[in-house]
Design a protein that fits this description.
Elements lengths: L3 E4 L6 H12 L4 E5 L12 E3 L5 H10 L4 E4 L5 H6 L1 H22 L2 E3 L2 E2 L23 H20 L3 E2 L1 E3 L1 E3 L12 H11 L2 E4 L7 E5 H13 L11 E2 L3 E3 L1 H9 L6 E4 L3 H8 L8 H7 L7 H15 L2
Parallel strand pairs: 1-2, 1-4, 2-3, 4-5, 5-7, 6-8, 8-12, 9-11, 10-14
Antiparallel strand pairs: 11-13
Length: about 325
């Protein structure tokens, strides 16, 4: 039975991953941590306050609960990181090395996500390969490339069982957007229900990879359960479900809300980030090495998002 420490449990991925993991491994075996608690929220399992820049506290919690796995999610996302690059470095890289050190000292399995933000404008844009040129032009991207290399280093140098994926934009109705460049693909559904219109900060024709959160959560569990002898890459597997631009989401929504309207007011900062990322990525290494396969396409994502958000906003 796994006993897992999760950092960043209040974030976009963490808030849903905790529920998923507790359904698989049991409430008491998942230790959720974040830099803050939410007033009035009832925990279904262990929760601890944790600042991931505090190395001693990470070690203390991991040892006290006798965990065998760390899933490190705490990070500042792309658009937020551009506003506070020094803070992003301190949190994203400091938190990563601290949790890796705990994994090394306590002989723990380790997961942390990378991102399509690890690619840059010189990376091939169509069907971006698993192994390719990575020269990102954002602090978030620099953090992610450095993180991929650091996880590889801890595996090769110390034998830490590190694993990870490069997430595309993640679409979810549960947690609010957290400062990512692909957040429009969440906001558009909320505004479709509220206003029947949306103003996109990303320009028409800007393709980026996306996936629905249930697929992302299943991928994490599947990778962590995978036979290590079959993992050639281990860290930073490309995974994706769809490559889409704002009009693709608008057309999918119009199948359910015919009078939905989209307009554009481009944010130059987030557009520059989006333009530096791939149009589509190749997930074949993940498919071959641990059987990754997304279930949701843009139509099934749209149907479920609209239904769930309509129920949530009633």
């Amino acid at each position: 039975m796994k006993k897992i420490l999760v950092t960043g449990a209040r974030g976009q991925i963490g808030s849903e991953l905790i529920t998923k993991l507790r359904s698989v491994y049991g409430n008491d075996n998942i230790i959720a941590t974040d830099i803050r608690a939410v007033e009035g929220e009832v925990e279904e399992g262990p929760f601890e306050i944790l600042d991931v820049t505090d190395e001693k506290r990470i070690f203390e919690i991991a040892k006290n609960y006798q965990v065998d796995t760390i899933m490190h999610l705490a990070a500042l996302l792309s658009a937020t990181a551009e506003k506070m690059p020094k803070t992003a470095w301190d949190i994203n890289m400091g938190g990563l090395v601290n949790t890796l050190e705990a994994a090394r000292e306590l002989n723990l399995q380790f997961f942390t996500p990378s991102s399509i933000g690890a690619f840059g404008p010189s990376t091939p844009k169509v069907q971006t390969p698993q192994d390719t040129l990575q020269r990102p032009t954002t602090m978030y991207g620099v953090n992610k490339v450095a993180g991929e290399l650091l996880c590889d280093y801890y595996y090769e140098r110390f034998g830490v069982d590190t694993r990870g994926v490069r997430f595309p934009g993640l679409i979810s109705y549960v947690a609010p957007p957290g400062g990512g460049t692909t957040d429009y693909a969440v906001e558009i559904y909320y505004e479709a229900i509220r206003q029947k219109s949306y103003t996109s900060y990303i320009a028409e024709g800007t393709y980026m990879d996306m996936m629905y959160m249930p697929d992302a959560l299943e991928a994490i569990v599947q990778l962590m359960e995978a036979d290590p002898s079959k993992l050639v890459h281990r860290n930073a597997f490309n995974i994706s479900a769809i490559s889409a631009e704002p009009m693709d989401f608008a057309k999918a929504i119009q199948s359910y809300i015919p009078d939905f309207d989209i307009s554009f007011d481009v944010d130059p900062v987030r557009q520059k980030i989006a333009d530096s990322w791939p149009n589509s990525i190749d997930s074949s290494a993940a498919e071959a090495e641990w059987g990754y396969k997304a279930k949701y396409d843009i139509d099934s994502i749209t149907k479920d998002m609209l239904e769930k958000i309509a129920g949530k906003l009633r």
